[in-house]
Amino acid sequence: MVLVLGVTLNCFSAERDMMLELLSNPAAHLPAEEKGAWAVFFAGVTALQKDGDRKHAAELFKEVGDKYPKSRYAKDSIELGVLLGKMLEEDERWAEVPRPDALPFDQRVAYFLYHLRDVECYQYSDPGMCVMLGEFGRKPGETNAAMKLKELGAPVIPTLIALLEDRRPTRSVGWARSFYPARTVLRYQDAAIEILNEILPTPFYERSTTAAYFSNEKPEVRERVIRAIKLLRGKTELERKSFAP
C-alpha cells in the first residue's frame, strides 16, 4: 500500500513539474528546430497583437518560412507574412477620418471593415476562445470595429457574407491552451462569422474543438457554412419579394 501510494505521488509530482515547465515555457518539449520556429512565430504574433506593428510582424513571419520551412509554423507564417505585406500597402493608401459615425452608411461600413485589422481581443480562459465581440483587452476609448459592424445590423449581412473568405489577419489571437506552443491569429472571416452568428436568426457555425476557429477549419467545412448562409439569404430574399405588396 505504501509502495503504491509512493508511486502515485511520484507520478503526480512528475506531471505537476511538467505542467509548471510548460506554463513557463510552452515549447519546452519541442524538438530543437521547432523551438526555434516557435520563438520567432510567437514573436511575430506578439508584434502583431500587442504592438500593432504589422511591418515587424510580417518580417518575423517571413523569417519563420525562410529559416524553418518544414516546421509546423511555416504554413501559417508564410500566409500571414504575405497578407500583412499587402495590408501595409493598404495602410499607405488609407486616409483616416475624424468622425466615422457621421459618415454615410456605405462609407461607415467601409471604414469599419478596414479597421477590423485593428481589433485587438484576448482570450482569458483555458479552455475558452478569443471573442471578437467583447470588451476583454480593449483599451478605454478604443473602437472595436467588429462591434460597430454588428451594431449596423441586417443591412451589412451581404458584406459580411463576402468577408467569410477574407483571410486578412486581425490583432486578435486564440489558443486551445495557453501552455501549448500554438496560437491562432484570427482573420477577417472569423470576425464576419461571429457577427453573422449574432445577427442571423440562428448560428451557422459552431466550433468543433477548443482549438477551432472558422479560419482554421478545413476548407470544406467553411464552404459548407458559407453555402448554408447564402441559401438562407436567397430564401429570405425570395420570401420578401413574394410577400411584397
Q: Would you write up a description of this structure?
A:
- Helix 2 runs antiparallel to helix 3 and helix 6 packs parallel to helix 8.
- The chain contains 9 helices and 2 strands.
- The protein has a two-stranded antiparallel sheet.
- With 245 residues, it is mainly α.
- The longest helix has 24 residues.
- The N and C termini lie far apart (83 Å).
- The protein is globular and about 55 Å long.
- The protein has 2 domains: 65 residues; 149 residues, no CATH class.
Compile the SSE list and pairings.
Layout (H helix, E strand, L loop, with lengths): L1 H23 L7 H18 L4 H14 L6 H20 L11 H10 L30 H8 L4 H7 L5 E6 L9 E4 H12 L19 H24 L3
Antiparallel strand pairs: 1-2
Helix pairs in contact: 2-3, 3-4, 5-6, 6-8, 7-8
Poorly predicted residue ranges: 238-245
| Overall pLDDT confidence | 87
Tell me the helix content: 55-70%
Number of strands: 2
Morphology: globular
Please identify the structural class as seen in this structure.
mainly alpha
Quick overview:
This protein has helices at 2-24, 32-49, 54-67, 74-93, 105-114, 145-152, 157-163, 188-199, 219-242; strands at residues 169-174, 184-187. It is mainly alpha-helical and 245 residues long. The protein is globular.
Task: Give the tags.
single chain; 245 residues; mainly alpha; two-stranded antiparallel sheet; disordered C terminus
